[in-house]
Design a protein that fits this description.
alpha+beta; ten-stranded mixed beta sheet; 27 helices; 24 strands; Macrolide_Exporter_MacB; MacB_PCD; cell membrane
């Protein structure tokens, strides 16, 4: 009880010093809890939606990952409805039609597809739809030419009753008039949904009234879902997938959960980085508090307190800090989850705050993370406090560093750093991407830990160099700032390490992202001869689109590009599923793929193909060999190998080329995949005219984009930039915690040096000079952390680029403007972090400061 009272008194006495550490715990716990609450809410919301839309028993096609992508969903014969109606226990059989391969445009030719990337869906209206939506305006679709639109899409694009919409699908285009608006009863999953009557949905979405994408069966009273499933399977055999409502719900949850898990673990990964950075802040806080209370601890030891009691006293303070920070963090996490839900709402996915899900385990996890991390971080300072000798403490208010321990620490740090550097070198020279990735991860871990451990040694060396460049121009004040930063290398190293972690990740990702853009740009310049690329945002090109592209003027040639599924048997007798790139012969000019044997033009001859270099080596394929190629859903061909393409590329790496006419020869017309994109070459000197002609020809298809090479490069740069900006935003949390560490270190350092500051003020140091000294000390610490982080991050990024080179991304590009901006920004961070400590130091009363013990 005495230990608890002492700890509580000390905690309250130093509550100002504990505040920033508590904020670090709060932010870390908030990120963890916010992620869990948000993902649990998403899961619960969609579980409810899946449960509301599931039929008692559903019959759907068996999943075929290797089916030809014809732009239409897999189907069942509509005639199956008659057999299902006779199944014992089936009260009702409802044909289901659904397709996500369509686009919708309004009267102004503007696409209604969600900007968030969510799908545009066309479905048939039936009684089961009333479980998830209700028609709040108008009526159900009663025939061809009528449709119901979901309310969120209608509101966002100002679609009103009676408006005409154009729907583009693989079978063709058709127009509908909006006769109803449907509002979700549960949640809007973010999709744009158009409802059609069943015959229209079959004809327009599937291309035939003789097919459906599934059937929903309602069980009669007293018949369980499992029994009905058994009866259905007995009646129609095992050629179809039959699921109960629970199984359908579970399957949907599995598909959705796999996507959500990626987001969940990514966010928790960034939360882990913030926790790691927070550990440095907490260690520094308690180390300095222990050092400042050395005399007090010595007195406690002198009057009979044991080492265990002193140790327990410090750990109890850490426990209090962890509990306070964690409780606040749990509340902050719930607020963060609400903010994420609002963000999703702005992107089109309406999540009801009434569905906010806080599982009992979430606050327990948050509390455990905050408390355990805080107590573990305080363990070393607590252990150090317990070792203080009473007499030594009474003689000296400081806590001298253990020279032997410092040498051991330095030795361990150098060994870890050396081992990490060796792992990075091995990763950079690896021939296999998988093995190299493991070495890269090991190298990153070892070098990071090594730099943290060897931080005090590096502080003594690097700070002197930085000071010589930055501080010497400030005269005596600059030299004082340098000596203050070097006074406790362990503290300076720990403070800088927190900043180093975040900036190392920023630098590494910047190098990787910049190298990816530079490599892709170089590949485009080297390999792509086409002037324009035409592709769609949602699915393949329709016959009408293809005709429109080919009708454009000022175009020398147009190349179609499709992907065909096939099973290939090689001369070594092995058979495997492969994807054939079926394209027009002009594709050889539009994308100049290098070859190691043969000529690429030969691959586009009659009954010919190419294979990639790696595939040829693995299966002993040579130019002139004939491969047995069984087209999925079509006939088997024997294709002659006309060329072996080089793997030294990132464009179409590993592709097998053949003439699109060859694919059409062995596939039925309704199973031939339509082009995914088209390439166009302008006539000499008519590039601008061709671009204008293509855009004019495709004015009725806003989902199609006509891009020249400059546009495509910009697209790649924007996509990589968006991803990096999102990651930088998440890493900002760790950097914020690191900045709090700098603030806390300076604040505690000012308290520790109260008497010294008073003496300097007494002998003539002005308030302005004092504040400048503290600001310069902060800048040096920040620049030290930035220098370590950026250097380490560039080494990680350069190694990662070596692995990317195995995938054809062979250009290393260091983004020096970004690196320079981050380095200079670190100096600004140091200045801002010092504002409050410098202000407080400047306001000290000189006489009171001198009298401080």
């Amino acid at each position: 009880m005495t230990v608890l009272k002492t700890s509580l008194r000390n905690f309250l006495a130093h509550k100002g010093r504990m505040a920033l550490s508590a904020v670090a715990v709060l932010l870390s716990v908030a990120f963890v809890c916010g992620t869990l609450v948000f993902t649990d809410t998403m899961t619960a919301t969609f579980d409810k939606l899946f449960g509301a839309t599931a039929s008692d028993v559903a019959v759907v096609p068996q999943k075929n990952d290797h089916a030809q992508d014809t732009g239409r969903p897999q189907t069942l014969p509509a005639s199956l409805a008659g057999r299902l109606a006779k199944v014992p226990g089936a009260a009702k059989v409802q044909p289901l039609v659904s397709s996500q391969r369509l686009t919708i445009t309004d009267a102004d030719n503007e696409s209604l597809s969600p900007s968030s990337g969510a799908p545009t869906v066309g479905v048939n209206w039936h009684e089961g739809q009333k479980k998830s939506v209700e028609i709040t305006s108008g009526h159900e679709p009663h025939g061809a030419g009528e449709a119901v639109l979901d309310k969120d899409t209608a509101d966002k694009h100002h679609v009103k009753m009676g408006d005409t919409l154009r729907v583009t699908t693989a079978p063709g285009d058709f127009s509908v008039r909006v006769v109803g608006i449907a509002t979700y009863r549960t949640t809007n999953p973010g999709a744009a949904v158009v409802y059609l009557d069943t015959p229209t949905a079959q004809a327009k979405l599937l291309g035939t009234t003789g097919a459906c994408t599934g059937f929903g069966l309602t069980a009669t009273s007293g018949v369980t879902h499992d029994q009905l499933k058994k009866n259905v399977t007995s009646a129609i055999g095992t050629d179809y997938t039959v699921r109960t409502a629970a199984e359908t719900k579970k399957e949907n949850e599995k598909d959705f959960g796999s996507v959500l898990d990626v987001l969940k673990y990514a966010l928790l990964g960034f939360a882990g980085i913030a926790v790691l950075v927070g550990i440095f802040l907490i260690v520094n806080t308690f180390s300095m508090l222990v050092a400042q209370r050395t005399r007090e601890i010595g007195l406690m030891r002198a009057i009979g307190s044991s080492r265990r009691q002193v140790n327990r006293s410090v750990l109890t303070e850490a426990l209090l800090l962890g509990v306070v920070g964690s409780v606040l963090g749990i509340g902050g996490g719930i607020a963060l989850a609400v903010g994420l839900m609002e963000l999703m709402g702005s992107l089109g996915m309406k999540l009801d705050l009434g569905e906010l899900t806080v599982k009992p385990a979430t606050p327990l996890v948050g509390l455990a993370v905050g408390v355990v991390v805080t107590v573990l971080a305080a363990y070393l300072p607590a252990r150090r406090a317990g070792k203080i000798s009473p007499m030594a403490a009474l003689r000296d208010a400081g806590n001298p560093a253990d020279a032997k321990a410092g040498k051991i620490r330095t030795a361990i740090g150098l060994v870890l750093t050396g081992a990490g550097a060796a792992a990075l070198v091995a990763a950079g020279n690896a021939d296999d991407a998988a093995g190299g990735s493991g070495l890269l991860a090991l190298g990153v871990l070892l070098t990071l830990v090594g730099f943290v451990v060897v931080g005090p040694l590096l502080a003594g060396l690097v700070v002197r160099v930085i000071s010589a460049v930055v501080l010497r121009v400030f005269g005596p004040v600059g030299r004082l700032a340098e000596r203050n930063a070097l006074r406790n290398p362990r503290r300076t190293g720990a403070t800088a390490s927190a900043l180093m972690i975040g900036l190392a990740l920023v630098a590494a990702l910047s190098v990787v992202g910049s190298s990816m853009i530079a490599s892709a740009t170089e590949q485009l310049d080297r390999s792509v001869g086409a002037d324009f690329i035409v592709d769609g945002n949602n699915g393949p090109l329709t016959p009408a689109m293809i005709r429109a592209v080919k009708s454009a003027g000022h175009v020398e040639h147009v190349t179609e590009y499709a992907v065909v599924q096939a099973r290939i048997t090689t001369p070594d007798g092995k058979t495997g599923d492969q994807r054939l790139t079926a394209a027009s012969p002009t594709y050889a000019d539009d994308v100049r793929a290098g070859t190691v044997a043969g000529e690429l033009t030969a691959a586009y001859g009659k009954d010919a193909m190419s294979v990639p270099e790696g595939y040829a080596k693995d299966h002993g394929v040579k130019v002139g060999d004939r491969l047995k190629v069984a087209m999925v859903d079509g006939r088997t061909a024997e294709l002659k190998v006309g060329a072996i393409t080089s793997d030294d590329t990132s464009i179409d790496k590993g592709a097998m080329y053949t003439n699109i006419a060859t694919a059409r020869q062995y596939l039925p017309a309704d199973r031939m995949p339509p082009p995914l994109m088209m390439l166009a070459k302008a006539k000499d000197g008519q590039a601008d005219e061709a671009a204008a002609a293509l855009k004019a020809a495709l004015k009725d298809y806003p989902q199609l984009k006509v891009r020249d090479q400059a546009d495509y490069k910009k697209l790649i740069k924007d996509q990589v930039g968006q991803l990096l900006n999102m990651i930088y935003g998440l890493l900002a949390l760790a950097i914020v915690v690191a900045v709090l560490g700098v603030v806390n270190t300076l604040a505690l350092s000012v308290v520790e040096r109260t008497r010294e500051i008073g003496l300097m003020r007494a002998i003539g140091l002005s308030r302005r000079q004092l504040r400048r000294m503290i600001r310069l000390e902060s800048v040096v610490i920040a620049l030290f952390g930035a220098l370590l982080g950026l250097g380490l991050g560039m080494a990680w990024g350069a190694t990662a680029q070596k692995l990317l080179a195995l995938q054809g991304l062979g250009v290393l590009d260091i983004p020096w403007p970004t690196i320079g901006t981050v380095f200079l920004g670190s100096a600004l961070v140091g200045l801002l972090a010092a504002l409050v400590p410098a202000f407080r130091a400047g306001r000290m009363n000189v006489l009171n400061a001198i009298a401080t013990d």
